[in-house]
Every structure is written in structure tokens, then in C-alpha cells.
Amino acid sequence: MKWQEEYKRKLISVEEAAKLIRSGDRVMAVGGSNDVPWGIPQALFARRDELRDVEIVSFPAVTDPGWLQPGHEEHFKVSFLTYTGPLGRPPVVDRRATFTPVTWALSLKNFERLNEHKDIDWDIVTISAPNKQGFCNLGYALWLKKDFIKKSKKVIAEVDSNKLWYYGDTTIHISEIDYLVEYPATMVSD
Predict the structure, then answer these.
(1) For residue 76, which of 43, 57, 120, 151 sits 20 to 30 Å off, Cα-Cα?
(2) 114: pLDDT confidence band, cut at 50, 70 and 90?
(3) Which CATH superfamily is domain 3-124+145-182 in?
């Protein structure tokens, strides 16, 4: 199958992507820079009344789809790794979110210890539009994106046609992604 066909087959709306996530799921949504998913977290928060105990694991929050505000603790359990940042600090201080102070290098250890192992059900990342070979770029804020993609059961990628291409080990092929969302809605040419 050509990657263009695979792309079209995996393409869903932001609302459809949010509906894939169920109560009790663990969702990795790497923050820490402006290179974060925007549409899926907002659509997921819009479903808050349908959901219970969805764990959101993030590096520092740079946006708040709503789950950092008081009153949503039964719907979303927010966990920060490394540091909280200004948006994450109030929910941690108020004990509405948890915080694990680890260095970037040790962040993955939380997911490797057998007695503390919890599966990551969903990883939500942003990617560039694909190149001619079907590879997309994960961007300048790579952090641990590739590691979490490998550890997650399913990957949803928000395709941003404005995202720039960065060199190094920053690519992922369309075949490694389970679902694609064009956000903001764009068209990828054949």
C-alpha cells in the first residue's frame, strides 16, 4: 500500500480521535514547549461528562484544555513529570494533580519499573505533514516523544502543515502511527 493511501485510511476528525479515549485510559500528551497537541486535548475535555479517571501524563503544561481547573478531578487525573511550570503549579499545590520530580534522562524510568509499571494507552503527538517518502517530523522539541511512541499501545498524531522540518533522529513514518488528525484542518497532497 502506498503511504498516501495509508494516510487517508488513518485520517479521522479531532472529535473522532477524542472519542477513541475511554474512561480509565492513560494518555501521554507531552508538553513542555509550544510543540504540543492542541485540538485533541480540547476535544477530549469537551467530552469530560462522559469520562471518568482518564490519566493525563504530561511534561509542563503550556496550555490548559480545562482539566487543570478545579472541579474536573473525577474526570481527569493529571500527572506531571520533570517540572510543573506556571500552569501546572496551582493544581499540584491544591493536590488536584500529581508531580514526579525527575530529570529528563530518568523520566522513562517511571514506565520501566516492574512494580510501578502502567501501560500508556494513548500517545498524542504533533507531526509535520509527510514528505515524499511518507516520513513526518516530530519537531524541535523531541524530548522523549520517540520513546513514548514506542511504549504506547496506540498513537494519535496531529498533523500540522506549518510545522517545520528539523534534522536528526526526529522522524516517524506514517506506518508507525495509528490515527491521524489534521489540525488545524489542512490537506496533504498526493
Answers:
(1) 151
(2) very low
(3) Glutaconate Coenzyme A-transferase (3.40.1080.10)
